[in-house]
């Protein structure tokens, strides 16, 4: 997993973009690419 676009939310640095990948034969293959659009603390 790689993470990027960290932002400070209520004193906690939270990544707002991430990619989940798998590796095979020395190559990286992305499986899931996400961008966080909202956060709700209850």
List keywords for this structure.
single chain; 42 residues; mainly beta; three-stranded antiparallel sheet
Q: What would your notes on this structure say?
A:
- The protein is an all-beta fold and 42 residues long.
- It has one domain (2-35).
- 0% of the residues lie in helices and 71% in strands.
- It has a 3-stranded antiparallel β-sheet with strand order 1-2-3, with no helix packed on it.
- The radius of gyration is 13 Å and the shape is elongated.
- The termini are far apart.
Compact description:
This protein is mainly beta and 42 residues long.
Number of helices: 0
Biggest sheet character: 3 strands, antiparallel
Number of domains: 1
Order of helices and strands: EEE
Query: Averaging pLDDT over every residue, what do you get?
Result: 89
Q: Based on helices, strands and strand pairing, what is the structural class? A: mainly beta
Oligomer kind? single chain
Give the CA-based shape: elongated
How many beta-strand segments? Answer: 3
Spatial strand order of the main sheet:
1-2-3
- Radius of gyration (CA) equals 13 Å
Low-pLDDT segments, ≥5 res: none
State which percent range the strand residues make up: over 45%
Helix content: under 10%
Give the SSE map.
Layout: E1 2-9, E2 12-24, E3 27-35
Antiparallel strand pairs: 1-2, 2-3
